């Protein structure tokens, strides 16, 4: 794990030179199998000039003095994954940029969506994201080397990144997200039941809408059905066959030109093989077959091998001429000059042409007529407003509604059964996060008479911050720091099931100290077993649990006349001094350093025992 500061403003590409490979495979059990962000580069954002971070698995903490720019790391991540672009964060150079490299398992759904957007894996099998923002507020996004709408990246972010901070509680504040969390907690069987409910609900709404339409527009639909029936009757009476119009055109041409065609064929046959009937007299010019025969005999009589071979070629030519003459004879024999047959073909062609003109698009011919007829039969089923059809449709609608009611009640029961257990587990986590008095619960209000796409329930996560306080929606009943810790508790409960690979917590320890701070660190470390977790913190008790410790430093950039921020990785004694600074404000304090070493030892023991 290395953090470096780029010393030049020239563009440093993230791409590596390597042999092309497939997207990375999932690591073995026990690792971050959902994927991770391996590299992050931030340029021109807030106090950050140009910093590149190489991120590892597990828990990464970001620490530093107040005002140094720690939050810019979170801001950069949010921006990279489609967050709102704030031009006020752009430095004086006029453009901010964030680039990231994602290592994802080959079966990650992100790959399919990225491929739909035209994105490709990099040479090492990773996926590169980039986002730029100008001082004027213009923003551009790139995914896998392709320019894409920011919305595409934001869509991918729903399955890649969850940001939890005092100003980023969108997931927890949305009732729909709270309902999804409860459904996920209820387990696989419940989710399968919910899928069945959604299918039944869609089917019921379609049938109900169709019935309402037929009843409300009975007159108009009946008139439209009459038009379709008339067209079908006309087409069925004529009985057109696929490709018949082209065949009729060919027959009409042959019948109309029968005499001219016969004369042409006879003349050609005579030129090839002469007068085989003897009806044309003796003054005919020599035919091709006879001339070729004379030439063949002359050459065949020679002893020269070359001439003998040419004689064989002429013999082959005589066979071809004879074959063509035979075909011409058959053609003449098949010609029909019957005027009655011609009239019949012309009448049939006129009838087909009338159908094509009325029912087919230009250029579609009789095949377009047949397609119209097939579509008309289907539409007639939808336009049927007879009593029998309406009764059958009403019965189907009622049966579908009964299925919706049954499945909706079962889904609701599953939610209610899961609500108490979910709230109890979250409550236990909150007890260790300096929210011992807080109580969380789910409100599940059902209305069987008003089913919706996700069931019959309105679900709300409630919180009573202290004894005697009434339960309120969690985003209203909790402060920013409390809300972050509630989200942390929920994420810990879901640690083994949440598909989001990267989680970011921005100062979830606000207003917390002592033993509770250590419990926050312990829970973040537990969450980091299956996810890549990035935490901005002021507390040494939290930072001690990190796998990777980043420190944000600020220093005056006298050349540019602004404050510059550097981010570096610390380990060993450097990390001890940073923890001592966080504890006492003094990096060289012997007492502070002793306390820092003690914190690191306690954290290491706790992680090994977990």
Automatic annotation (TrEMBL):
<dbReference type="GO" id="GO:0005524">
    <property type="term" value="F:ATP binding"/>
</dbReference>
<comment type="function">
    <text>May be involved in recombinational repair of damaged DNA.</text>
</comment>
<dbReference type="InterPro" id="IPR004604">
    <property type="entry name" value="DNA_recomb/repair_RecN"/>
</dbReference>
<feature type="region of interest" description="Disordered">
    <location>
        <begin position="1"/>
        <end position="32"/>
    </location>
</feature>
<feature type="coiled-coil region">
    <location>
        <begin position="373"/>
        <end position="410"/>
    </location>
</feature>
<dbReference type="GO" id="GO:0009432">
    <property type="term" value="P:SOS response"/>
</dbReference>
<protein>
    <recommendedName>
        <fullName>DNA repair protein RecN</fullName>
    </recommendedName>
</protein>
<keyword id="KW-0175">Coiled coil</keyword>
<feature type="compositionally biased region" description="Low complexity">
    <location>
        <begin position="17"/>
        <end position="28"/>
    </location>
</feature>
<dbReference type="GO" id="GO:0043590">
    <property type="term" value="C:bacterial nucleoid"/>
</dbReference>
<dbReference type="Pfam" id="PF02463">
    <property type="entry name" value="SMC_N"/>
</dbReference>
<feature type="domain" description="RecF/RecN/SMC N-terminal">
    <location>
        <begin position="37"/>
        <end position="552"/>
    </location>
</feature>
<dbReference type="GO" id="GO:0006310">
    <property type="term" value="P:DNA recombination"/>
</dbReference>
<dbReference type="GO" id="GO:0006281">
    <property type="term" value="P:DNA repair"/>
</dbReference>
<keyword id="KW-0234">DNA repair</keyword>
<keyword id="KW-0067">ATP-binding</keyword>
<dbReference type="InterPro" id="IPR027417">
    <property type="entry name" value="P-loop_NTPase"/>
</dbReference>
<comment type="similarity">
    <text>Belongs to the RecN family.</text>
</comment>
<keyword id="KW-0547">Nucleotide-binding</keyword>
<dbReference type="InterPro" id="IPR003395">
    <property type="entry name" value="RecF/RecN/SMC_N"/>
</dbReference>
<keyword id="KW-0227">DNA damage</keyword>
